[in-house]
Amino acid sequence: MSTTKKVLMLPGDGIGPEVMRQVLRVMDWMAKKRNVNFEITEGLIGGASIDAHNNPLTDETLADAMAADAVLLGAVGGPKWDNLPFEIKPERGLLKIRKEMGLFANLRPALVFDALVGASTLKEDVVKGLDIMILRELTGGIYFGQPRGIEERDGVRFGFNTLVYSEPEVERIARVAFDMAMKRNKRLCSVDKANVLESTVLWREVVERVATDFPEVEVSHMYVDNASMQLVRNPKQFDVMVTTNMFGDILSDCAAMLTGSLGMLPSASLGAADKNGARKALYEPVHGSAPDIAGQDIANPLATILSFAMMLRYSFDMGDDATMIETAVQNVLKGGLRTADIMQPGMAKVSTTVMGESLINELDKIA
Ligand code: NAD
């Protein structure tokens, strides 16, 4: 039996529309072969929306996003819009949609595909088989805390920010983290600096309290300085890591680089759960609009396809289908196909379109 899943597609700018076309193919395949009923709406965001409406995110598109079960975004931005005033730059569209949808949980998986293990700067045995998830609090903490500013006091200039978390803010991200751990290997590491920062003493207390609702999950706590060392020393010790906005900003980029390839990295941002447990959610590749290669059919579509797989897992509870897509990606790479960004000696360089086609062939084989 199929139930309708409302998806808003926002291809955006640069390579966004090219990589999104390959996702549409995968969705079409799923509709036909897996009996999944997607109701797809397309909208404009970023530069594309500025060109059409003089606004990087219109109220209509925002309303579509709020009404959708999930949003898939390509990328925004490019040199054409670089000189616009700050308020109507393409990136404002992205910031606004994240804010309006209340996306407080940012999920960044770091997954090393066997075929690409050589792309990491770390030794093969350290990263082979790596599969961790970094969960970053996205709307609170020191990036938003008040007071903030630069001011002069008695002739000396001070720059200051405030690191503040309320108990409900910590609790909601902790709950997402535990849910995530339950869908993975049931291990959660909460990263803080509770030896120095009171805000993260509270963070740790709240994580401990929420943990009692998830007895199956093994919880640990780590100071952020140690966590950064451990991520590079032995990243495979982790399953899910949850942390504050600023620590997560840094650790997720560090974890991303364990994999070594920007064109392969998906992400998700989740909002609060409604009374049925459904969350607002936006999925997007980590990379930008890559204006240097846009329109040439050479971009790597896999980060966006893997973002779609995350949508299946986290918005639609279709973990098996998500795994199937991830396996198809593994197999295509194992077969020696590479887009230019991940090209290695002895492999076959293929276009965006051929990568998409090959993935569909692989899905046919697996299904
Ligand atoms: P970028 O991620 O767009 O590109 C960095 C480099 O990686 C480029 O050489 C590009 O060709 C390459 N690259 C990126 N994605 C690729 C893919 N899928 N396949 C093959 N190669 C890929 O970052 P940038 O150059 O710093 O930014 C370009 C534009 O994108 C800017 O306008 C920036 O503001 C915007 N941007 C948007 C987002 C977003 O929409 N979330 C994120 C980052 C940057």
From TrEMBL:
GO cellular component: cytosol
Residues reported in the UniProt entry to bind substrate: 98, 108, 136, 225
MF terms (GO), sorted A to Z: 3-isopropylmalate dehydrogenase activity; magnesium ion binding; NAD binding
UniProt-listed Enzyme Commission number(s): 1.1.1.85
Keywords, in A-Z order: Amino-acid biosynthesis, Branched-chain amino acid biosynthesis, Cytoplasm, Leucine biosynthesis, Magnesium, Manganese, Metal-binding, NAD, Oxidoreductase
Catalytic activity: (2R,3S)-3-isopropylmalate + NAD(+) = 4-methyl-2-oxopentanoate + CO2 + NADH
Subcellular locations according to the entry: Cytoplasm
Example GO biological process: L-leucine biosynthetic process
Site (Important for catalysis): 143, 193
Binding of NAD(+), residues: 78-91, 288-300
Functional pathway: Amino-acid biosynthesis; L-leucine biosynthesis; L-leucine from 3-methyl-2-oxobutanoate: step 3/4
InterPro entries given in the database record: IsoCit/isopropylmalate_DH_CS, IsoPropMal-DH-like_dom, Isopropylmalate_DH
Binding-site positions, Mg(2+): 225, 249, 253
SMART domains found in the cross-reference section: Iso_dh (SM01329)
Free-text cofactor note: Binds 1 Mg(2+) or Mn(2+) ion per subunit.
Alphabetized PROSITE patterns for the sequence: IDH_IMDH (PS00470)
Transmembrane feature ranges: none
Cofactor list: Mn(2+); Mg(2+)
NCBIfam families, per database record: leuB
PANTHER family membership: 3-ISOPROPYLMALATE DEHYDROGENASE
Name of the protein this chain belongs to: 3-isopropylmalate dehydrogenase
Lineage: Bacteria, Pseudomonadati, Pseudomonadota, Alphaproteobacteria, Rhodospirillales
Gene designation per UniProt: leuB
